[in-house]
Predict the 3D structure of the following.
Amino acid sequence: EAQVTQNPRYLITVTGKKLTVTCSQNMNHEYMSWYRQDPGLGLRQIYYSMNVEVTDKGDVPEGYKVSRKEKRNFPLILESPSPNQTSLYFCASSFIADLSYEQYFGPGTRLTVT
Amino acid sequence: SQQGEEDPQALSIQEGENATMNCSYKTSINNLQWYRQNSGRGLVHLILIRSNEREKHSGRLRVTLDTSKKSSSLLITASRAADTASYFCATGLRNNNDMRFGAGTRLTVKP
């Protein structure tokens, strides 16, 4: 089954404790992206990746890191989480064809930083 | 910064009625997409319209795009209670490889 998976789905952590949210897709997509969703603000892009070893900042990259060592995986790293990073996070992936692509979203990770 | 802005923020209709949601954006786009999200779940792609297209249909969905006004509309005909969800427009920008989402329209279809 074609899908994007994220782990964990729910996470409660404390300020400053490094964490990683994993994202994996099995569709051989070149493009992968991370978003956060906050009430009233919709989805805001954190980072995206056009392919292996190619990453770029989105709208709200501060406080986050990503890596793309393999095509299928795109982990999101919070080196020192803070309460303002409490949010619902989505990973997404897509093909890139003629600059038109639909994105496939993971189920989301609800993060609470206390 | 957000690129797309949906209007209205919330819409409540009776089953069987049509629902129209609008999206405005600011810069030149390659394409515009509409997504649906059930509460707390991942987004599901509904339809993509390219910048050189004016109208597109998919089942009960009809999307229009007016690049001169930088706006798009999503029409859901003969709505059902199961259509209750949030709907987002997303723009693929012309000179960029990221996507920008609006804040969404919350649609409630009453049975």
Observations:
- The mean pLDDT of chain A is 92.
- Chain A touches chain B at residues 4, 31, 33, 35, 40-45, 48, 50, 56, 58-59, 88, 90, 92, 96, 99-108, 110 (CB under 8 Å).
- The radius of gyration of chain A is 13 Å.
- The first strand of chain A starts at residue 4 and ends at 7.
